[in-house]
Amino acid sequence: MVKQLEGNITKYNYYKIFTKRVYLPLIAIYLIDRGGVNLQELGIIASVTGAVQLMLEVPSGYFADKFGHKFALLLGSFISAISVLPYIFFPGFIGGLVASAGYFGGMTFASGTMQAFMHETLRSLKKDHEYSNIMGRAQSFGLIGNIFLVSFVPLTYKLNPRLPFIIGFFCLFATFLLIKSMKIPEVHIQVQEDGYKRGTLEKLRRISKKIPLMRMFLIFLIFGIVSAGFDQSTMYREVIFRGNGIPVEWFGFFLAIGSLLAAFGGTQIQHLQKISPSIFYFFDAAYLVLLLIVIGLIHNPIAIVLVFALFPAYDRTRNIIFEAQLFDEFKASRYKATLISVMNFFTMVSALWVPLILSRLVSQKGLSIGYIYFGIVLGIILLPILIIQGVTAKFDNKLN
């Protein structure tokens, strides 16, 4: 049993390699060149995808907690794998929309669920106190492997534009096979059916006994807006690359720089965890806003590549820190997947309007000025929320 559970950790490392879309650097250019999709339609695809994630995020967490984490992971990985097929067989606005919504719809079943599955694995092994370090190392391992794929798969674009997406299908299907071979921790045998009858409000009430409801809402809201900002800010990355004379076949190599930096960041998580939560939230938002403004100010190809590399370098690390904080607070809860799903729900809500603002600004002001305005707008939105969260945190600390 112990050996099989230890195997979950090893398999999770390889899961992290294949769960990323190896064709990611090519999606925007492929849809524009092969499907005639314009910049406004790319924004619509992102927003509709966000709506699908929004509808499925919390229900998928309930589904996972009720019917089993492994079953939910298998279902989600299968949906994500077949979502690549529209890119291959009917590229265009509709094909891109179905493919994007399908991939992220499938990933909602893994969102929170995989983290909960691994946390329960570590609890069974009495290693749950090492969650952030083990997950950080797994991220680094996965990203290093993914660097190879993301660097070389786009080179096949010149041979056949569909080939990177065919390879991507097999990579995502590999995640299905890895999950299928994982051992279910014994802790998942016990299920509280009555918890599902109480509904979302009761779950949030239970959570709020440990974290005051207002502060919990503000933390989730900050996480959601900043996460959506990171996710959607790379929507026009490849368009900016090509506009600065960077060849399409090199996109993968430049994207791999971000993965390499993120792999290093995964080994440095313990340092960021020492920062007090309120200060970390300010740093989190400031990092995003600053990068957005810098993107609009620079025009040197090398500098642009490096700045865009800083997005994934930090974004993937920050997620682990937020997850570790929640799991530490609710380590005995059976509703970990639900908890992460609620947190990600706020990201999905933000993903409905964040890409629309960016696409509107880019369409009206151009890429450079649009990104500067976008950074300023997000900063204006986030600043009062951060201040209120800081005040409520101090107030809660005095009460306790």
Account of the 3D structure:
By secondary structure, the chain is mainly alpha-helical. It has one domain (2-182, 199-399): Up-down Bundle (Growth Hormone, Chain: A). The chain contains 19 helices and no strands. Helix 12 (213-233) packs parallel to helix 16 (277-297). It is globular, with a radius of gyration of 20 Å. The N and C termini lie far apart (42 Å).
Topology diagram in text:
Blueprint: H1 2-18, H2 27-35, H3 39-67, H4 69-82, H5 85-89, H6 93-107, H7 113-124, H8 131-152, H9 163-180, H10 194-197, H11 199-208, H12 213-233, H13 237-243, H14 251-266, H15 269-272, H16 277-297, H17 301-329, H18 336-365, H19 367-399
Helix pairs in contact: 1-7, 1-8, 1-9, 3-4, 3-6, 3-18, 4-6, 4-7, 4-9, 7-18, 8-14, 8-17, 12-16, 12-18, 12-19, 14-17, 16-17, 16-19, 18-19
CATH architecture: Up-down Bundle
Enumerate the spans where pLDDT stays under 50 for 5 or more consecutive residues: 188-198
Radius of gyration: 20 Å
Structure classification: mainly alpha
The number of distinct helices, counting runs of at least 4 residues, comes to 19
Integer count of domains: 1
Rounded to the nearest angstrom, the distance between the terminal CA atoms is: 42 Å
Query: Which class in CATH terms?
Result: Mainly Alpha
Helix content: over 70%
Taking all residues together, what is the mean pLDDT? 81
Query: How would a textbook summarize the main sheet?
Result: none
Q: What are the defining features of this structure?
A:
single chain, 400 residues, mainly alpha, Growth Hormone, Chain: A, 79% helix
